[in-house]
Specification:
Layout: E1 5-7, H1 22-25, E2 30-34, E3 36-46, H2 54-65, E4 71-79, H3 82-85, H4 111-125, E5 130-135, E6 144-147, H5 152-159, E7 164-167, H6 175-179, E8 185-189, H7 196-210, E9 226-236, E10 242-243, E11 251-253, E12 270-274, E13 282-285, H8 293-296, E14 297-300, E15 303-306, E16 311-313, H9 319-324, E17 328-334
Parallel strand pairs: 1-2, 3-4, 3-5, 5-8, 6-7, 7-9, 10-11
Antiparallel strand pairs: 2-4, 6-8, 9-13, 9-17, 11-12, 12-15, 14-15, 16-17
Length: about 325
């Protein structure tokens, strides 16, 4: 039984449609296949989160460039949650997160997870060359690439995007983690949506990858790359009322919090104030799913602070995203 809608062409309107109108053109998650000079396809996924549109705009730019010429390499691309994109949301309330349902997910099986399994099966048969999943951040973050394996092919693919690379193994069920089992795979984090330099950077990278004949297996020189390992994911507990401006909320977070992203935060750094409870409002889990909250956080005189030196990423001031996903990730520098 087929779960994914597959086509071997795309309508011309795809080159100009706005992300918020894409759902009328592509109403369901759809996998497109285009042939090119080199047979092994490059795989690109965009709009796994409907409010992260940079990848789609970069893909439009790429398809426009090659609309009247042969692609240097075959291309398969997946348009994910177009329904959420129509409303500018990460995902709808009755939907799973489209970047938590890929093979390896710990979530219960859904129609959407059957689609992602089928995509991986299809691309395995096509002997996919490499996989690129394009995302945005909600907070102030630099552009960086993420990988799920410390392998030279993965590091070389990530280094093409920039010198900043994040290695992580949790959360489970992400697209790059599933594709990492069959080919070199990266996730691109392209800053906030609505920034043209993010679209241009993603387009240049996608175009460069289309022209690769192979990926080098040589190690990346340490002076050419900064690799950080995600050691914990931090969530605000579900029963906690959080705010950035209401001093009566359970947790009043610092308004400058997102400026800490990708900076060395020493022990004692203040994150906010615990107002109505002395209980820890956060839960931190390491890459094995073990709770490590006390290792990283403490409450002293109602002040929530870091217990040890660390480097946060993906801190945001968007309360909805914090509740749907997480507050941040904590990282440490490594030498692969």
């Amino acid at each position: 039984m087929a779960y994914i809608n597959q086509v071997n062409h795309f309508p011309k309107e795809l080159l100009s449609v706005k992300p918020e109108s894409l759902h009328s053109l592509v109403p369901e998650p759809t996998l497109f296949h285009l042939s090119g000079k080199l047979k092994q396809p490059l795989f690109i996924s965009v709009l796994l989160h409907g409010n992260e549109v940079t990848g789609f705009l970069a893909l439009q730019k790429l398809l426009t460039k090659y609309q009247n010429q042969e692609l240097p390499r075959s291309l398969s691309f997946f348009l994910g949650n177009t329904k959420a994109a129509s409303l500018g949301l990460r995902h709808l309330e009755d939907q799973p997160d489209f970047n938590r349902i890929w093979p390896g997910s710990r979530l219960e099986q859904t129609k959407e997870s059957l689609i992602t399994q089928e995509i991986v099966n299809i691309m395995t048969r096509k002997e996919v060359f490499a996989s690129i999943d394009v995302h945005n951040n909600t907070g102030l973050n630099p552009h960086y690439a993420c990988i799920n394996k410390l392998d030279n092919h993965f590091l070389q693919l990530a280094r093409l995007f920039g010198r900043l690379v994040v290695y992580f193994t949790r959360p489970k069920g992400v697209q790059s983690g599933a594709f990492a089992e069959i080919c070199p795979a990266v996730t691109l984090e392209c800053g906030k949506p609505g920034q043209q330099h993010g679209v241009d950077h993603a387009f240049e990278y996608l175009n460069s990858c289309l022209h690769l004949s192979k990926l080098s297996s040589h190690p990346v020189l340490s002076q050419d790359i900064n690799v950080y390992h995600t050691v914990a994911q931090v969530k605000v507990n579900k029963d906690i009322n959080l705010s950035f401006d209401d001093d009566q909320a359970d947790l009043l977070l610092d308004k400058e919090l997102e400026r800490m992203n990708f900076t060395d935060a020493p022990a004692g750094t203040r994150l906010g104030t615990v107002v109505n409870s002395r209980n820890m409002p956060l839960t931190a889990k390491d890459e094995k799913g073990i709770i490590v909250t006390e290792k990283f956080f403490s409450i002293i005189d109602n002040t929530l602070q870091l217990n040890k030196n660390t480097m946060p990423s993906m801190l945001t001031l968007d309360k909805h995203v914090i509740k749907q996903d997480c507050l941040c990730y904590l990282m440490e520098r490594i030498t692969p």
